[in-house]
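Async update (no meeting this week)

Hi team, since we skipped the sync, here's where things stand on the single-chain job. The sequence we agreed to prioritize is pasted below, unchanged from the tracker. I ran it this morning and attached the output directly underneath so nobody has to dig for it. Comments welcome in thread, and please keep replies under the output.
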Amino acid sequence: MVKSNRGISLIESLVCIVIIGIGFIAIMQLSAFTINSMDRATEKNKLNYLSEMVMEDMIGDPDNASKYDNFSKTCSSGNQSASDLHTRMKKKWDDMLQEKNLIKVDNKDRKPRCDSYDNKKTFINSGSNTTGRVNFLTGTGKRKKYLGVVIK
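Output:
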């Protein structure tokens, strides 16, 4: 007597479900990695924008370049009175690094993560050529951004 197979067995269906499940897990891990990479890329773009903004402000006021030295920003912020140009610029940098007064989307303000090792500093070297440098350390100090220019 010959029996004809008229369907799939329980074992075959379980094997199929396991294979599909492994595929879904791989896709979910890939999407999580992609989202994390996009967040890091966004952070790098912000650092590039902010470091270029700081340098342009220094280049715009070359006569007072030495007054832009020793700007240091960690997670906390201090209130500065803005009376002269270099103090107003430092206050603007502080506000931009803390993302104050920016456009909100759907009433959500997403501020960057700030760890204890994160630091933003400026350095001015005066001599025959005055040079400026910006150091940004983020991601608990692991990600670094350096930018330097000749001011005058």
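Quick observations from my side:
The beta strands are 72-73, 119-125, 131-138, 143-150.
The longest helix spans residues 10-60.
Reply here if anything looks off.
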